[in-house]
Design goal:
The complex is a heterodimer of chains A (580) and B (262). Chain A has 580 residues and is mostly helical. Chain A is built from 25 helices and four strands. Chain A has a two-stranded antiparallel ribbon. The longest helix of chain A is centred in the middle third of the chain and has 53 residues. Chain B has 262 residues and is α/β, with parallel strands linked by helices. Chain B contains ten helices and ten strands. In chain B, the strands form two sheets. A six-stranded mixed β-sheet of chain B has the order 6-7-8-3-9-10, sandwiched between helices. In chain B, strands 2-1-4-5 form a four-stranded antiparallel β-sheet, covered by helices on one side. In chain B, a hairpin with a 2-residue loop joins strand 4 and strand 5. The chains are: A mainly alpha (580), B alpha/beta (262). The structure holds adenosine-5'-diphosphate and magnesium ion.
């Protein structure tokens, strides 16, 4: 017990309590409460409180990182969780109680803390009134903290199953818009699963049973499965891999007809980020060049498309007669030129930063991104690029039969080009060029000593990244039909970088999953638009703590990361033995 | 007869330190030259100047009919000089085989088109790269070949040193520069290294310059030994001659005497 009462654990509890209060005071908990996780049983707001308290216990009871020369303190993780969770509960309960007291004393709390509404307070108090609410927060903090800490005592398999199952329930509930649309699309009944925007009790129970049992047996058979895979002959393995890719593609093809046009539109946006992510992944993931100005290529792709095809564009207005007659303002004719222009600009941007490494490169590219945005906004280029008004009426890609008013068709168009981009990225990474990039990323001087021309391969990375990423801009223009300078801010660069880091640097499936999570998920939570960036940030932080190698990591990087951990642990053991 | 590698009056200065001072140095075809000298004598800097990591402040460097001054490291590798590093510098996140395959880079030419469309010339080139990289790894018997798909960072220390040599071999050099290859090896491994360096010359036909502190290794392999101190060449000759040289003894004694005091 002594050990569990350490300062670290109390501090973890205070952080947890502050987090819960923060979510309440920015209004997130009250707004989220509008959405049910399990209809009439638990709302998303309540769930946030519970996750906050349990998460406190879980994080506090993390096994300590081995540090040289320091004996790790061993305490029962359940007790650690209990201490941290209770601390969080006490803090949250006390603050709620104080707020209630202030309000009943006639203090106008809301003039300072606008979100302290009766609704918020009642959610925080679980509808039990001030005192009951404070007590239940303490009680829940203790119970959930201890429970979450106790998870650490379970076998890996069991803990994995529990966390997986709970996550599955949450995801099933959040995916209600998609899944009920799918069920409707297949004209299957959905009332048994979803009701009023949340899971039914039956649906929740089924999810728990299915996810729990499925995960348990999946983990149970993992050793056998790995062995069986290892024993497969190479041609069989490639066959299975091809089948898996084929199944994934088939799924992506039927998807829009299952989910309807709103979600297809979201999928189209996800696809744009996949294009951008695949391009940036070449620069950052393969070649190791941290580019914070990647939005430049997005802008180049979109504006070049607009300038070459929009009837509002200078080029088309003044010189257009000639162009148009020859069919040169056709989207498909313009496309290769757009990519070419992007490649050239990629090289132009790459050339001055060749000598820079790491952080310096990041800062300079950041500047280039802003320069491009300033240029498209400028009065100087306004006659050509439309300045603040942007370029309107970018015509959709012909022929008419593509019918790009339907989001499904836009999705397919983007899907095809995502496929092409993924193929290009994959072939490049799996070649002499990919090896040279990897070597350069690992150690620039040594790569050079092995005969790799750093100049050539850096420029090549910028050029290929620009070419692939410009497709994102091209189809953005085609999808939206108009181009405004404020679509090309720093946030795009940050988003794309987040997508590839979250998915796993250097991993093509990672780009897809990363886009789905970071771009798709927030779109589905549109009702909570005001908290979008907060959620986005929280997802990023959580994944970087829980899975630093990314969601679908590049296998090698994962091994490398773990090899390093193992080495660090080994050195700790060695020094411990040496000192003792 | 002209030398394979020929340095004339080469100097390199870092701020207040004259790291290499008016050094004349040469290595002939098929020769193994040992370079010795106390820490900080400028041995590694000499390698760095030859391989283009730093340009010399003055002096001439010629190799196999080429003037190396002003060439970039990758161009120097291409004309036939490969090196290893004093502190092993492998590509840790790449596999053993891939590390060696990178070495083939200057001997191959596939570009974007070949990578995207897997043209027949690219495919045969890839096969050749794999075969050559595999052959370089095979040179180390069963040390590296069974671990083709391990990450370089997963190898044991001595195997990392071996892989560095294999990667250098894969560049198909004429001259191999080894920077303290015996560092961190046990006596049995050092004996293996002596044999290996002999085989590198006899079977592969490389000329070799090696920096080494370990005198048994130097005496075991070197045709000729050059001693540096404070950037200057202080002695040159057979191992016996250099080991008996008064200046060399003083350089080493002086260093160890001062080191003994601190
Ligand atoms: N990049 C550098 N910058 C500044 N000083 C250097 C650099 N490289 C080497 N030196 C200095 O040059 C001298 C020779 O170093 P080095 O060639 O590494 O010696 P050796 O390999 O013989 O031990 C040392 O005094 C070292 O500090
Ligand atoms: Mg040295």
């Amino acid at each position: 017990m002594r050990a569990a009462l350490s300062r670290d654990n109390v501090r973890a509890g205070l952080i947890g309590g502050v987090t819960v209060l923060y979510l309440a005071l920015v209004g997130m908990i009250e707004r989220f409460q509008d959405r049910d996780v399990i209809t009439d049983v638990i709302g998303l707001g309540t769930l946030l409180i519970l996750i906050g308290l349990a998460g406190t216990g879980y994080m506090a009871s993390r096994p300590p990182k081995p540090r040289p020369g320091r004996k790790p303190v061993t305490a029962n993780p359940a007790l650690i969780g209990l201490v941290a969770g209770t601390t969080a509960g006490v803090l949250a309960g006390a603050v709620i109680l104080i707020l209630e007291l202030l309000i009943s004393a006639g203090v106008d709390v809301r003039s300072v803390l606008a979100s302290v509404t009766p609704g918020m307070l009642s959610t925080m108090e679980f509808g039990l009134g001030p005192v009951g609410g404070a007590l239940i927060l303490v009680g829940l903090g203790a119970a959930l903290g201890a429970g979450a800490g106790a998870l650490r005592l379970l076998s890996d398999q069991l803990r994995d199953t529990v966390t997986f199952t709970l996550t599955a329930v949450l995801l099933m509930s959040l995916m209600e818009p998609i899944l009920s649309a799918v069920l409707d699309g297949l004209s299957l009944p959905d009332r048994w699963l979803y009701e009023g925007g949340g899971l039914t009790v039956l649906g929740a129970v089924l999810t728990v049973v299915a996810a729990g049992a499925g995960r348990w047996f999946w983990k149970e058979r993992e050793p056998q499965r790995k062995e069986a895979v290892a024993l497969l002959p190479a041609d069989r393995r490639t066959l299975y891999r091809k089948l898996a890719v084929f199944a994934a593609v088939a799924f992506l093809v039927v998807l829009p007809w299952l989910v309807g046009s709103f979600i297809s539109d979201v999928l189209g946006t996800v696809g744009l980020y996949v294009l951008l992510g695949l391009g940036l992944n070449i620069v950052v993931g393969y070649a190791g060049l941290l580019d914070l100005g990647y939005v430049a290529f997005f802008a180049v792709g979109a504006y070049a498309t607009g300038v070459l095809t929009s009837p509002a564009s200078y080029l088309v207005r003044e010189e257009g007669q000639l162009f148009a007659e020859k069919g040169l303002t056709n989207f498909w004719v313009a496309l290769p030129f757009v990519v070419l222009i992007a490649v050239i600009i990629g090289i132009l941007i790459g050339a001055p930063v060749l000598r820079l490494r790491g952080d310096y490169l990041a800062i300079v590219t950041l500047g280039f991104g802003e320069i491009i945005r300033t240029l498209v906004l400028s009065d100087w280029l306004a006659p050509y690029l439309g300045g603040a008004q942007g370029l309107l009426n970018v015509p959709p890609p012909p022929p008419e039969a593509l019918d790009l008013r339907a989001p499904q068709n836009v999705y397919y168009l983007i899907l095809v080009f995502c496929g092409i981009a993924a193929f290009v990225a994959w072939r490049l990474s799996d070649s002499r060029i990919g090896r040279a990039w990897a070597a350069m990323r690992e150690d620039e001087s040594v790569a050079e000593a092995m005969g790799v021309s750093i100049i050539r391969y850096k420029l090549l990375a910028f050029a290929m990244g620009a070419g692939v990423g410009s497709l994102g801009g091209v189809f953005f223009a085609a999808k939206i039909g108009s181009i405004f300078p404020n679509s090309f801010g720093l946030l795009v660069s940050i988003n794309v970088l987040s997508v590839i880091i979250l998915g796993g640097l250097g991993s093509i499936p990672g780009v897809i999953v990363g886009s789905a999570v970071l771009v798709g998920l927030p779109e589905l939570l549109r009702e909570f638009a005001e908290f979008r960036l907060l959620i986005y940030g929280a997802i990023l932080v959580a994944i970087m703590i829980l899975r630093p190698e990314g969601l679908v990591p590049n296998k090698r990087r994962q091994r490398e990361l773990h090899a390093r951990d193992a080495e660090a642990e080994l050195s700790v053991i060695v020094t411990d033995e040496a000192t003792s | 007869m002209s030398h394979l590698l020929d340095l004339e009056g080469v100097s390199k200065r870092f701020g207040g330190v004259q790291a290499v001072d008016q050094v004349d140095f040469h290595a002939d075809q098929g020769e193994i030259v040992g370079v010795i000298g106390p820490n900080g004598a400028g041995k590694t800097t000499l390698f760095n100047v030859v391989t283009g990591f730093y340009g010399p402040d003055s002096g001439k460097i010629r190799f196999d009919g080429n003037n190396l001054v002003g060439l970039k490291p990758n161009q120097i590798t291409k004309v036939g000089i490969a090196r290893t590093f004093q502190a092993v510098r492998l590509f840790g996140a790449m596999t053993v085989l891939e590390n060696a395959m990178v070495g083939q880079h200057p001997r191959t030419r596939a570009g974007v088109f070949g990578a995207l469309f897997h043209t027949s010339s690219t495919r045969s080139e890839e096969e050749r790269v794999q075969a050559k990289a595999g052959a370089a790894l095979d040179f180390f018997g069963d040390r590296l070949s069974p671990r083709l798909n391990s990450l370089a960072s997963e190898l044991a220390y001595a195997d990392r040193r071996r892989l560095e040599i294999a990667r250098a071999m894969a560049t198909e050099p004429k001259l191999l520069l080894l920077d303290e290859p015996a560092a961190g090896m046990n006596p049995a491994e050092k004996d293996g290294l002596i044999e290996l360096i002999g085989r590198l010359r006899d079977e592969k036909g490389y000329s070799i310059v090696l920096i080494e502190h370990d005198m048994p290794v130097i005496s075991g392999v070197s045709d000729r030994v050059v001693a540096l101190d404070y950037g200057k060449k202080i002695a040159e000759g057979t191992y016996e001659e250099v080991a008996a040289n008064q200046q060399v003894i003083e350089a080493y004694l002086g260093k160890s005497a001062t080191q003994g005091q601190t």
